[in-house]
Write a structure and sequence with these properties.
The chain has 493 residues and is an alpha/beta fold. It has 11 helices and 17 strands. Strands 8, 9, 10, 11, 12, 13, 14, 15, 16 and 17 form a 10-stranded mixed β-sheet that branches. It has a 5-stranded mixed β-sheet with strand order 1-2-3-4-5. Strands 6-7 form a two-stranded antiparallel sheet. This is Motile sperm domain-containing protein 2-like.
Length: 493
């Protein structure tokens, strides 16, 4: 579904704006949030989306604007950020933005098996969903996106109708002209009936956007390069929460300290010190290499390991770039690959794993240094990366410094010792676990009751068939006896 650009004239937008602002004047400026009021006055594209969502019906567009902007004030949408939402949900990977669909629209991924109905208050979950919608809208500048329900491994306890209806309802009521596809990936058969109920609650336009896909046909809607391994592809991406960056924020730089403090990055390490000078020319920015996420490495639980991923991209379209990762604690981390060379525009995913047996609480003291240097064409024929990084004399070296953090979801990694949580965190964790356990027991009880009913039904059917068969066999036996007496094979004198 390629987004069709429909022209909306400037006079049409101005008419909608004037109509809305007249209503604001009659109700008072405090009836909507100041940021949204300013957006109405200056953002033509936002108004255009309301206009198109209602098929260029100005009255309906104005009503939707009022409904949406009133909702935004009631929910304090403009105040929602990473610091105000639940960190456990934010870092769990239940929601994320990753990849694009075949039309180039960003994917908002809901990994359903990361969510258990009732484990966390639904209003807290909804607040986190709003955070991701707002972030996605800023990322795409209001262009279409698709919502990807990753339902592999889900059970009835993960099927939260309220959350699913809320997600789709946001597109329908509060985020105009924003939805491309609703992709349902690997939906278990036990949830088919539940999703049929969801479809009945959707408007016809939304029903047309729903596409059920599996690993066999996912490439029909998601390009191969964006299909991660858990979806049957080769993209090694693993979720790691990346804080949002804004255009007006200063670009992450590696600034050498002025207080003679040393930071040692081991592996033929260099120490950074203001008074020290090296033969290599160090640049304060990241040069040609783009590092995502910038500035941090977030470790999350994946099975029995704590891992994080970095994406390194050669942002130049003509120069090869070599990179090398160093850490202050090489005994604690496995980094693959730690060195390499990127062609123009090429991207590589680096996996960083924390070895078992180390204190998670000490992660904040650990740092990584991503170094890069441009390569001459003549160097590529006989490239020896270890030798290149042993002798960097005379080369331009660009640097990114990364700080390690752990996500709120992390609890244990094999033998890893976790620092003691606060009493409040312990209570909240216990309540969440108890709620989750009760929900699972309730679900299991319902499934067991259904199984018993089905078994009883089949028993009754079987008994009925046996009775019918008995009657038929008895009738045939009696009929056969009567026939034999009427037509004897031998007549005796």
């Amino acid at each position: 579904m390629v987004r069709e650009y429909i022209e909306v004239s400037k006079p049409e937008i101005e008419d909608l704006r004037k109509s809305f602002l007249d209503e604001v004047s009659s109700k008072g400026n405090d009836s909507i949030h100041p940021k949204d009021l300013q957006r109405v006055k200056t953002d033509d594209d936002w108004l255009r989306r309301f206009y198109l969502h209602q098929e260029k019906n100005q009255e309906k567009a104005r009503e939707m604007m009022w409904s949406s902007i009133s909702w935004r004030k009631e929910q304090n949408v403009n105040e929602i950020n990473e610091d105000t939402v639940n960190k456990e949900i934010l870092c769990s990977g239940a929601f994320s933005i990753h990849g694009e669909d075949v039309d180039g629209c960003k994917l908002l991924v809901f990994k359903c098996n990361k969510h258990t109905k009732g484990a966390i208050d639904v209003n807290i979950v909804k607040q986190c969903i709003i955070y991701w919608f707002e972030r996605l809208e800023r990322t795409t500048k209001g262009d279409f996106c698709s919502i990807f329900f990753d339902m592999e491994g889900c059970g009835l306890s993960n099927m939260d109708m309220d959350v699913i209806k809320y997600l789709i309802g946001l597109f329908n009521s509060y985020y105009p002209y924003f939805l491309n596809y609703i992709l349902i990936f690997e939906m278990p058969w036990v949830l088919t009936a539940a999703f049929k109920i969801v479809k009945t609650l959707l408007p016809e336009k939304a029903k047309e956007k729903i596409k059920f896909i599996s690993k066999k046909d996912i490439s029909t809607f998601v390009p191969t390069e964006h299909i991660i391994t858990s979806w049957g592809g080769k993209n090694p991406y693993v979720f790691s929460f990346v804080p949002e960056t804004f255009p007006d924020q200063e670009k992450e730089k590696v600034v050498v300290s002025n207080n003679n403090k040393k930071v040692h990055f081991v592996d033929g390490s260099m120490s950074e010190q203001a008074a020290a000078a090296t033969t290599a020319e160090k640049e304060s920015d990241g040069g040609f290499l783009k590092v995502t996420p910038p500035g941090i490495i977030t470790f999350v639980k994946d099975g029995n390991e704590l891992i994080s991923t970095l994406e390194l991209q050669n942002a130049d379209d003509s120069i090869h770039v070599s990179y090398k990762l160093k850490t202050t604690s090489p005994e604690k981390f496995r980094v693959k690959p730690s060195t390499g060379c990127l062609a123009p525009g090429e991207t590589v995913v680096v996996n960083v794993t924390l070895f078992p047996g180390f204190q998670l609480g000490g992660l904040s003291r650990d740092k990584f240094l991503v170094m890069s240097t441009p390569m001459e064409t003549s160097e590529l024929d006989n490239l020896d990366l270890p030798e290149l990084w042993k002798n960097t004399s005379g080369r331009k070296l660009y640097q990114h410094r990364l700080k390690c953090i752990q996500s709120g979801e992390v609890t244990k990694n094999g033998n890893v010792t976790v620092t003691a949580p606060t009493a409040a965190e312990t209570d909240q964790s216990s309540i969440s676990q108890l709620s989750s356990t009760i929900s699972e027991i309730r679900t299991a009880q319902i499934e067991l009751r259904q199984s018993v009913k089905i078994t009883q039904y089949f028993q009754m059917v079987t008994l009925f068939l046996v009775l019918i068969l008995g009657v038929v066999v008895g009738y045939m036996a009696r009929n056969s006896k009567d026939t034999s007496s009427e037509h004897p094979y031998c007549n005796h004198p």
